[in-house]
Amino acid sequence: MLGTLKKAGEILSLFAKSQPELGVTEAAEALGIAKSSACAIMSSLAQIGLLRRTPQNRYRLGWRLLELGSILMESTEFRLEALPEMQRLVDRFGETVHLVVLEGFEVVYVAKMEGTRAVRIAASAIGARLPAYCTGVGKVLLAELPWDEVQGYIAAYGMKAVTVNTITEPERLKAELELVRQQGFAYDLEELVPELCCVAAPVRDYTGQAVAAISLSVPSYRFYRSRDAMRVEVLRAARQISGNLGYVPAVCRTRRLQRCCAKEG
């Protein structure tokens, strides 16, 4: 059963914008499984709406996925809390604001708002996946992981250059993530898209875990002029969202404890 579920997930992962339709033979060959197994799994997925069969007996993603995606978006607490703060950032700067989560060595975009001055960033559509190591939001979230875990991802997936500014050396990334941990924010200085920069900060839940990251993406010629102001506002937004999720920074907990002790004394 577990093996079948795993194969079903792998079949769904084969679909992409560049490959929206698959036949049974293609899926079987891509996964190295028997055609009969691929046929049975894809037929079952179609029966529950996760795939749909075309008149040519090929398959496309099913509409049930859209329904499930909508439920996920509308019930994810940090996303709901983030939307008002994202709008405030858009109103303040007129630039594109993103909210992402980390899955493995990639970031997944779960919310996006474009402003009046924003350039269109096709790569960051909702649901899109991008390498974490060359994005501000990704570096913020990778900085929360033990370095051994990050090294494992590097060994498995590599760090290819996306632009001339992309960090591709593990030791440079390690130093960058340490800096991000210390300062509490990260920059992407044209590391993913030429002439596009961003500043990002972590969103934490009540346990202190970074469950997401929020960022402001800006053309480089405008970013460098207002970088400090943008950093301040992104950090403020991240703190507000985190506070709404119940996160209390350690320094605030200490001060509260000191005040309580002083009153009792």
Verbal overview:
With 265 residues, the chain is an alpha+beta fold. The chain folds into two domains: 65 residues, Orthogonal Bundle (Arc Repressor Mutant, subunit A), CATH 1.10.10; 175 residues, Beta-Lactamase, CATH 3.30.450. Helix content is 51%, strand content 19%. It is built from ten helices and nine strands. The strands form two sheets. The protein has a six-stranded antiparallel sheet, sandwiched between helices. It has a three-stranded antiparallel sheet with strand order 1-3-2. A hairpin with a 6-residue loop joins strand 7 and strand 8. The longest helix has 25 residues. The radius of gyration is 21 Å and the shape is globular. About 2% of the residues have low confidence.
Q: Count the strands?
A: 9
In percent, how much strand structure appears in the residues? 15-25%
Distance between the termini: 62 Å
**Domain module count:** 2
CATH architecture of the largest domain: 2-Layer Sandwich
- How do the strands line up in the largest sheet? 6-5-4-9-8-7
CATH topology of the largest domain: Beta-Lactamase
Assign a percent range to the helix content: 40-55%
